[in-house]
Amino acid sequence: MANSPVETVRTTSDKLLLLLAAVLVVLGVAAFYAFALQSFYVRLGALIAGVALGAIVALMSQSGKRFLAFAKDAYREVGKVVWPTRKEATQTTAIVFAFVVVMALYLWLTDKVIEWSVFSLILGWK
Predict the structure, then answer these.
(1) Residue 44: C-alpha distances to residues 20, 79, 94 (Å)
(2) Cα–Cα–Cα angle for 83, 84, 90, nearest 5°?
(3) Closest by alpha carbon to 70, among 59, 81, 57, 83?
(4) Residue 100 belongs to what H/E stretch?
């Protein structure tokens, strides 16, 4: 198992950006509850605006930029995946179900043999 490096926020500007992002999200949540007398859509708009602005500010930090690069790489890798055809997926599913049924029968039979041997042969119960 490889050790993954722990990433920390090192610069003051990154810390301030992340703090500002957190404050914006908290303000969005607070606005949602503060506008209790307003319509639901106004409250929801305030919440979404706070979270969206917080996310935008967070993505402007070094940590956010690294996250965006990672997300782009991950999305690119998903495009390289060779997905099974419908026939392959159906066959694999059928094999798994058949294996489950065989294992269930085996475990049921083993349980009954152990039950019979313990209760009938060893303890003499009928």
Answers:
(1) 21, 34, 46
(2) 145
(3) 59
(4) helix 86-116
The DSSP H or E segment spanning 14 is helix 12-34
Contacts of 13 (CB under 8 A, 6+ apart): 61
- Measured in degrees and rounded to the nearest 5, phi and psi for residue 55 equal -65, -40
Rounded Cα–Cα distance for residues 10 and 22 (Å) = 17
CA distance 112 to 21: 62
Q: Amino acid identity, residue 58? A: A
Residue 3 has pLDDT above 80, yes or no: no
Tens digit of pLDDT for each residue in 59-93?
999 989 999 999 999 999 999 999 999 999 999 99
C-alpha 125/C-alpha 110 separation (Å) is: 19
